[in-house]
Specification:
The chain has helices at 53-65, 123-139; strands at 28-32, 44-45, 48-49, 70-76, 79-85, 92-102, 105-114. The protein is an alpha+beta fold and 143 residues long. The radius of gyration is 14 Å and the shape is globular.
């Protein structure tokens, strides 16, 4: 198995979602909370979850680590980053998650991106949609 290497990405840690300028290639997907002030235009807006940000991050950690070939790279300052590898070629995608307090609950900032290649066949979009759907199910009261 190929280990994750810090040389694979040039993203700063922790990732600043407000100043993020996403990769221009169609190999990434960005979700931001409703009304979040950022330089980037999100690909999708996060639902609002009834649970607190810490509970949302705990649920997402369980969801992420429950997927095959996924490892937590780091978790600090309320932000977590995961590496998920493709089944056949073991290409690495990085997924950064951070929950923010929003309307008495929380909303998610998430950035999933391929580290190699030009196009990802919407793998990153489908991953974040799947993880958000699972978190909504765990929440039971997401709007």
């Amino acid at each position: 198995m190929c280990a994750w290497s810090p040389a694979m990405t040039h993203d700063p840690a922790p990732l600043d979602f407000a100043s993020l300028v996403p990769d221009a290639h169609p190999r990434r997907f960005l979700v931001l909370p409703p009304g979040f002030q950022a330089r980037a235009e999100p690909d999708a807006v996060s639902p609002v979850f009834a649970m607190a940000p810490q509970a949302l991050m705990a649920a997402l950690d369980s969801i992420a680590l429950g997927e095959p070939r996924t490892q937590r790279r780091r978790q600090d300052g309320g932000q977590a980053e995961y590496v998920q590898r493709s089944k056949v070629f073991r290409f690495a995608d990085l997924i950064t998650l951070q929950a923010f307090a929003h309307e008495g609950g929380s909303a998610l900032a998430a950035y999933s991106r391929a580290q190699v290649g030009y196009y990802d066949f919407k793998v990153n979009q489908r991953r974040l949609e799947r993880w958000i759907a699972a978190a909504r199910q765990a929440d039971g009261k997401a709007k």
